Amino acid sequence: MASAKISSTESMRFYNSFSKLEAFCEKEAFKGYDPYDSLNSRLFQKIPVLSKSRIVKLAWTQFFKRAPLNLRSLVGVPKEYNPKALGLFLSSYCNLYSIEPKREWLEKIHFFGDKILETQSKGWSGSCWGYNFDWQARAFFQPKYTPTVVATTFVTCSLLDAYELTKKQAYFDAARSACDFVLKDLYRTYDEKGTFSFSYSPLDKSVVFNASLLGARLLSRVYGYTKEENLYQEARKAVIFACDYQQENGAWSYGTLPFHQWIDNFHTGYNLECLSDFARYTGDHEFDAYLKKGLGYYLETFFTEEGIAKYYNNSIYPVDIHAPTQLVITLDKLGVFQENKDMAEKVMGWTIKNMQSPKGYFFYQINKYFTSRIPYMRWAQAWMFLSFTVLFRNEPALYREHLSKGDENSGH
User: Fold this and answer.
1) Which secondary structure element, helix H or strand E, spans residue 299, and what is its range?
2) Per-residue confidence (pLDDT) for residue 242, from 0 to 100
3) Residue 132 in contact with residue 138, Cβ under 8 Å?
4) What is the distance in angstroms between the CA of the first residue and the CA of the last residue of the chain?
5) What distances in angstroms separate CA 322 from CA 279, 334, 340, one per listed residue?
6) Is 6 strand, coil or helix?
7) DSSP state of 240
8) Is the CB of residue 269 less than 8 Å from the CB of residue 315?
9) Helix, strand, or coil (residue 192)
10) What is the 3-state secondary structure (H, E, C) of 325-352?
């Protein structure tokens, strides 16, 4: 059944929502806070002994992550560029440029691309990126700018998006170099078949399925350019490992550790788009059955009739901004946006209505008893920004029909 054409009123709502978000991000110069950045606190760093304690760092991080009010300015946490956010914005402006090749968008592409090259983590086997803060998790501690396969893959793919438009060789060279980071610096957990999972970073040995598959995606996308057999073969081994852990119903837990057994929305989306990209860039479709089963589980499990994007497979709360943004991106990556367009627009519409501030930014989470309205730049704004541009690229009329009156409608 064909999807109904979106009304002009609804189209205006999407465009105005994006325009307000764009204005907010530009006002903040694309810098901001992050759910996990509280260890950047100048106050905390001055506390002797306690600031070195794993338990205290974990408690401090979780307190600020879960607090409904943003207390970061009170303890000296600065607003900063986050490399992954830079990558998400870069891909976003590449999408906008593909719809309308404006000089302004091209300038943004060069700005974000060049800024990304400046923020590389040094001292590793290849180009790589991490977060702009110390990060204390239950499984590991990551010092500031420790490179991760997650940040590196999103950044690298954005550089390749920019390379395809600009042909700037430095962008491609950094992307190819990132493959050396993945192959040489990440730990591997092998199974009895000789397939493996890439670690999250060079400093841990955890098995996190979306992280490993993101490494496979990076290798397979670069393979699409260079045809280096080793990139394909190593990516394929990581794909086999992850597919072997897919559950009968199509789900994946987050990882293999005892406290990684939850099943959530957006990491499932990551897994699916990575499998899709592997097939797209290598031509290897052996794992399409896993992809199809996973997509069915994803669409049937994580979204309500009202358009709410659930966080977990068994719970709506918290309604996290990352979940609705991932739907549009996943549908696009898997080439199934048009047949699921109504669902995507319903989820986006609910999110705009319930999670966008009058100031333009999007809230972090709606919990059962309170809402966290903190305007995180990476976690909320950058992802929502990207999701809008993917939506517009699939439905360019949502964007183009308002271009001539965009300034008067957006409040710029």
Assistant:
1) helix 288-301
2) 98
3) no
4) 39
5) 25, 18, 19
6) coil
7) H
8) no
9) coil
10) HHHHHHHHHCCCCHHHHHHHHHHHHHHH
- Helices 322-333, 341-355: axis angle to 10 degrees equals 160
Query: Does 311 reside within a domain?
Result: yes
Name every residue whose Cβ is closer than 8 Å to that of residue 28 and which is 6 or more positions away in sequence.
79, 377
> Rounded to whole angstroms, how far apart are CA atoms 46 and 267?
36
* Ranges under pLDDT 70 in the chain: 1-9, 139, 400-412
Per-residue model confidence (pLDDT) at position 412: 35
Residue type at position 151: A
Mean pLDDT of the chain: 93
Residue-level pLDDT at 136: 84
Q: Tell me the two tokens of residue 158.
A: 């954005």
Q: Strand, helix or coil at 226?
A: helix
Structurally, the chain folds into a number of domains equal to 1
Task: Enumerate the β-bridge partners of residue 189.
Answer: 197
Beta bridge partners of 365: 320, 372
Q: Is residue 410 domain-resident? A: yes
- Reported as type and span, the H/E element at residue 188 is strand 188-190
With respect to residue 403, please indicate whether it lies within any of the assigned structural domains.
Answer: yes
Would you give the distance in Å from CA 79 to the centre of its chain? Answer: 19
SS3 content of the chain, % helix, strand, coil (to 5): 60, 5, 35
In a domain, 389, yes or no: yes
Containing domain of residue 312, as a range?
A: 1-30+307-412
| Digit-coded pLDDT (tens) for 225-249 | 999 999 999 999 999 999 999 999 9
Q: How far apart are CA 116 and CA 86, in angstroms?
A: 7
pLDDT of residue 397: 77
| Number of CB atoms found within 10 A of residue 22's CB | 20
What does the pLDDT look like over 256-315, one tens digit per residue?
A: 999 899 999 999 999 999 999 999 999 999 999 999 999 999 999 999 999 999 999 999
- Three-state SS for 373? coil
Of 312, 278, 311, 274, whose CA–CA distance to 294 is shortest?
274
φ, ψ (nearest 5 deg) of residue 41: -60, 125
